[in-house]
Specification:
Helix content is 25%, strand content 27%. The chain has nine helices and 22 strands. Helix 7 links the parallel strand 15 and strand 16.
Length: 387
């Protein structure tokens, strides 16, 4: 197998608005320069790959993942993060955000240092920044997060304590609860600093949520999880998120965090253009059932369901393509699935000008699938990273 490509031919293409049964993609300098719909074209060199009618899907983007294959991003070395990137590329992911749980400041600093080194490693999926899940969240909706590390926003110095990658190109995403002390001021300051702001682990009322949206927080983390249940007299964050056309949501489509019927309801209510898929995977992903030491406690995995000592769900063990398959099973089309797993995450992170869909001018971040929908080949910037 070649490591770099000039073209893919004889391909079934999942494009932003349709599926083309026979087409080709020409690649130069890691970007898509043309998309041909003339059908089969004979390979001219070893850098021109005939995929034999296989489906080509845009590379998946996971904006919320804590680890995999026994590696937790908060405790990983740069080499271990590279191993996670390699694993993710085998699952069709081409870009990802290592996601932090609330922890001590020194743990944040060491984790960011490892990310900075690993993001320069060409192997596997790209590390494009980081995602802080907390620490500015509501202790009444802590889920599996450790409340002893939660913070309120009293002054800018609190925010300055959060280390971030030095690269100006690194994506900075954070999940916050706007009802905490200083929450709206926090949203305004984060927006000023060009963070991607998401609302989660929250019990905020509609007024506070509206103020947060005005200040720049218009996305919701693992929607319906770690927030109060929808009640007809107290709609809360769930009712607010469903009612706002300008608010997007991400979901853990594993059939455990959200029932398949609930996922179908969300598809109808929000539409595929306003939903993103996330894995929310922990270090146990890819390892199978068992007991794992993660975040200073034992997390059990049984029949694909995680739980901590309190009985709370503690993340997932799915991959992004598992989430795609779940959405396909409840009726989402391939185009809708590509929106939720690729183009919507790219739009959320404000990188949709460069990736997230199969279009001319964008990065050649692509996944070739076999007849069973399994990953056959993963391409990042025109280079084959899996196998």
């Amino acid at each position: 197998m070649v490591s770099s490509l000039k073209s893919l031919s004889n391909a079934r293409l999942v494009l932003p608005d349709r599926v083309e049964d026979r087409g080709s993609i020409r690649i130069e300098s890691g970007r898509i320069v043309s998309i041909g719909l003339e059908g089969h074209s004979r390979s001219a060199s070893e850098n021109d790959l005939d995929v034999g009618g296989a489906t080509v899907f845009p590379g998946l983007i996971d904006v919320h993942i804590h680890g995999a294959i026994g590696i937790d991003v908060m405790a990983a070395t740069s080499e271990e993060l590279a191993q996670v990137s390699i694993f993710l590329s085998s699952q069709g992911v081409t870009s990802w955000l290592p996601t932090f749980v609330p922890a001590a400041d020194e743990q944040y600093r060491s984790a960011v240092a490892a990310i900075e080194t690993a993001s320069r490693d060409p192997r596997g999926a790209r590390i494009i920044g980081l995602h802080y899940e907390g620490p500015f969240v509501n202790s009444a909706q802590c889920g599996a997060l450790h409340a002893e590390h939660f913070k309120t926003f009293s002054d800018i110095g609190v925010l300055d304590q959060l280390p971030i990658p030095k690269s100006s190109q690194a994506v900075k995403m954070i999940t916050i609860a706007p009802e905490i002390e200083g929450g709206i001021a926090l949203v305004k300051e984060l927006y000023r600093r060009d963070w991607i702001i998401s609302i989660g682990h929250t019990r905020a009322d509609e007024t506070t949520l509206g103020e947060a949206a005005t200040a720049g927080a218009r996305h919701m983390t693992h929607f319906m999880n770690a927030m109060p249940q929808l009640h007809h007299r107290q709609p809360g964050p769930v009712g607010w998120g469903l009612s706002r056309d300008d608010v997007t949501c991400d979901v853990i489509a594993d059939g455990i965090h959200l029932h398949p019927l609930t996922l179908r309801m969300l598809m109808k209510a929000k539409g595929s253009t306003n939903l993103s898929l996330i894995s929310d995977a922990i270090a146990a992903a890819g390892k199978g059932d068992g007991d794992y030491q993660i975040w200073g406690e034992t997390i059990k995995v049984k029949d694909g369901r995680t739980s901590n000592a309190s009985g709370n769900i503690a993340g997932s063990v799915i991959t992004m393509f598992d989430a795609v398959r779940m959405m396909r099973s409840i009726g989402a089309t391939e185009v809708e699935s590509a929106q939720m797993a690729s183009s919507n995450p790219a739009r959320l992170l404000r990188i949709d000008h460069e990736c997230g869909s199969i279009e001319e001018g964008k990065r050649a971040d692509l996944v070739v699938l076999d007849d069973q929908g399994k990953v056959k080949l993963t391409i990042v910037g025109g280079k084959i990273v899996f196998p």
